Amino acid sequence: MKTQIGIIGGGPSGLLLSQLLHLQGIDTVILEKHSREYVLGRIRAGVLEHGFAALMREAQCGERMDAEGEIHDGFYIAHNGHRHRVDLKGLTGGNSVVVYGQTELTKDLYEARDRAGGVVIHNAEDVKPHDVTSGNPFLTYRDGDDVRRVDCDYIIGADGFHGVSRKSIPKESLREFERVYPFGWLGVLSRTKPVSPELIYAKHERGFALCSLRSQVLSRYYIQVPLSDTVEDWPDDEFWEELKRRLPDDVAGGLVTGPSIEKSIAPLRSFVAEPMRYGNMFLAGDAAHIVPPTGARGLNSAGSDIYYLYNALLDHYKKSDDTGLQEYSDRALSRIWKAQRFSWWMTTLLHRFPDNIPYDDRLQHTDLEYLFSSQHALASLAENYVGLPF
Ligand code: FAS
Ligand code: PHB
User: Fold this and answer.
1) Which one of 38, 101, 299, 348 has the minimum C-beta count within 10 Å?
2) Residue 46: its pLDDT value, please?
3) Which of 102, 121, 169, 304 for a ligand 1 pocket mutation test, highest count of atoms within 8 Å of Cβ?
C-alpha cells in the first residue's frame, strides 16, 4: 500500500490530522492497534479549548459538538467550604471552553473518515516504523499471519504514551522529562444530573475532587486517591460519600448520586519527549507528552500539535516549503511546555501531597489566597485554561 502520510494511532490526534489533510486532498492511512469499539470505550477528556473546537469545525466535524456540547464561560474553585468563580469570558476578553466528551469527538471524527472513505485499519498488530531517516519510510503491521507494508512520505506517531513510535527512536536521539505524582484520579461516570452547571475543582484536606459533566444527564466526577488504591476499593456508595466530604456543604447537599456506568483510576504524570521529530517521523499528542488532567490540557495539547503539523504538511505539498516541518518540534514544544507548566501548577495548587512539609502546605494556601485576591493572577489562570494562542 502507498500513501502520503502514514499515521500510527486512531485516537483523536491521528483522526483529526487525517481528516484535516483529507480535506486538502492529502492522502493518509491510519493503523490502529485496537478495534473501534475499544477506542470509543475509553472515557477521557471533557473540556475543549476554543482553538481545539475551531479545529474540529475546520475538519467539518464540529456540527454535533456545536449542537450538543456546552459553552462554559467560567468554572469554580472550592476551598475551605466556599466556591470562587473564575470568570473565563470576562477575564479573557470573551473566550470560553466547550464541554464535549472526547468519546463523542472521536466518534464524530471516525464518522467523518468513514464518509470520506478514509483508510483506518483496526486491529493492526505489531505496527513498526521503518527507514524513518531515509527518504522512503514505511510502516509494517501484522494482519493475522500476513505482514503488510505501507509506504509513505512521512510517518506520524499519534499512538499515545504507550505507543511504538517514540520507543522506536534511538535513546541517544531523545531527551525525556518526567514527573510522577504520588496519587491518581478515581473517575466515575453516572447518568445523573450534574451537581453544578459549571465545573468545580475542589481543594480539600482529604484530597482533590472535581465535578464535571458530559451533558445535563451525564455527570463526570473525580477524587484524588492513593496510587495503591484500586477500583475495587471504591464501591459506589463509598465514592459518593467521599466526594461529598470534599465539597462545600451547599454543593454536597445537592449532589444527585446513582450507579456508576464507568469507574477507573488514572495515574498522574507530567512527561515530555524532545525533539518531536526523528527523520521523517513526527510525534503528536500523548505519544510526545502527557499532563496531569487537572488543567484539562491533555487533549488540547494534542490539538496544537495537529494544527502545526497540518499547516506544515500543507506548505510542503502545496508550496514545496518545508519551513513548517523543520520548525515543527520547536514550535510545538514551546506551547507544550506552557501547558506542562500550567498543568503542574494547577495540580500542585489543588492536591494534597502526602509528603508535604508544613511550609509547603502554607504556600499552597497562600497561592490560593493570592489567586482570589488578584485579577491579574486570575487572568493568568483564565488565559491558560481557555487555551493560549496556537
Ligand atoms: P490516545 O492515547 O488517545 O490515542 C492513541 C491511539 O494509538 C490509541 O487508540 C491506541 O490504541 C493507539 N495505539 C497505541 N499503540 C499503538 C501501536 N503500537 N500501534 C497502533 N496503534 C497504537 N485529557 C484531558 O484533557 N482531560 C482528562 O480528563 C483526561 N483523562 C485521561 C484519562 C486517561 C486514562 C488517559 C490515558 C488520558 C486522559 N487524558 C485526559 C488525556 C487524553 O485525553 C489524551 O490527551 C488524548 O487521548 C490524546 O489523544 P492521542 O494523542 O490521540 O492519544
Ligand atoms: C472531565 O470532564 O473529564 C475533565 C474536566 C476537566 C479536567 C479534567 C477532566 O481538568
Assistant:
1) 38
2) 94
3) 102
Distance 319 CA to ligand 2 centre (A): 39
Question: Which atom of ligand 2 is nearest to 295's Cα?
Answer: 10
The ligand 1 atom nearest the CA atom of 163: 15
Looking at the chain, the whole-number percentage of residues with pLDDT higher than 90 is 99
CB 153 within 8 A of CB 280: yes
Mutate to test the pocket of ligand 2, among 42, 43, 47 (most ligand atoms within 8 A of CB): 47
CA dist 70 and 55 (Å) reads 17
Average pLDDT over residues 112-123: 98
Longest dimension (CA), the chain: 64
**Domains of the chain and any CATH numbers:** 5-46+101-178+270-349 (3.50.50.60)
Please give the backbone phi and psi of residue 270, each rounded to the nearest 5 degrees, phi first: -115, 130
368 falls in which pLDDT band (50, 70, 90)? very high
> In terms of residues, how long is the chain?
390
Helix residue ranges, H only, the chain:
12-22, 36-40, 50-58, 63-68, 88-91, 102-115, 236-245, 249-252, 298-319, 323-350, 358-371, 375-386
Q: How confident is the model at residue 312 (pLDDT cuts 50, 70, 90)?
A: very high
Q: What is the mean pLDDT of residues 344-371?
A: 96
